[in-house]
Amino acid sequence: MREYLLVLLVAAMTTYLLGGVFRRIALRVGAVARVRERDVHAVPIPYFGGLAMLGGYAAATLLAAHLPFLGKHSVVTSDSVAILTGGAVICAVGVVDDLIELSAMAKAAGQVLAAGVVVLNGVRTYWIALPNRIIALDTATSILITLIFILVCTNAINFVDGLDGLASGVVAIGALAFFSYTYLLAVQQNLVLATTASLVTIAVSGIAIGFLPHNFHPARMFMGDSGAMLLGLLMAVSTISLTGQFDSSALHTAGRRLIAYYLPILLPLAALALPLLDLVLAYTRRTMAGTWWFVADKQHLHHRLMQRGHSQVHAVLLMYLWAGIVAFGATLIGLVGTWWVAALVLVALVVAVWLTFSRSGPVRVRTAPAAADHGDDPVD
Length: 380
Description:
There is one protein chain. The protein has 13 helices and four strands. It has helices at 2-29, 49-65, 74-100, 104-120, 139-160, 166-188, 196-215, 224-242, 257-271, 273-288, 301-307, 312-335, 339-356; strands at 32-33, 45-46, 127-130, 133-136.
């Protein structure tokens, strides 16, 4: 655990320090988020937060490779290098998009390229554990499922990146919950505690936390597509590296057998519940309206919270609350499974619902300059 905590701190501090550097570079080259009709920021804000996060993740990966415990496991090291390479590719695609706004097809091609780098280096879903059986995936199916999942997660994070600190905070919460699950799962199964999923999620938590001081309201810097797609890729591959690699039957007790089997599949979805829900709702909403799913609008979950009268900060904190309840609630129910845990999660959900709907009416108009993430959909 001490090595994981060190990785977290190094990732956070490196990202924070690099944030100031890349902010100045973005201002010099004109890489800024212009104010558009659907945005809620009032002044242009520099991009390149994704480059700072990539630097933080690279530092965490390099550190882990030289630590006495994490560094001695060749599978973790090789997976980490492959994931870092794929992250660099998708971050580069995002930087180009932040500068010149790529078409939807060009951006999708870049995402597939980054996912392909990861898959070709062996990071993919090989099998899925279900009650009383394991479904082995052939090579083609394994690659297809992995590519689709990476694309979905990448665009889901991009969709939720719409208010100051929203995407980075939600990802940090989901990654910490996922890390707790992967680490405790390894403990319960008496397995080696060094796993790719644990390393990636703790590093993702670090870079997201390290970026928050630059990005929380009022933001001084945006992660841009480079950061949103990087976080989506990293969360996806952490899930992929875990699914099917643990014997979920070792988790079950008499009353938790079924949920134990499905938890390795359900928990990653819970960690990304808000971004994935927003993606599904946006796809449904835009399809029913007769438009393409990537045509941007102002009907995302965070926009609707503000329309109900919540301030930008309150809306972000509410999204944090929901992300924490769903992600950590699923973890506790799956790993502990007692009645009091379920009762605690239920009470938290009731409180979250009350806070969400406690205000109604348009939010008061700002009088001072403020900023919020540009809320890019896959294409603007």
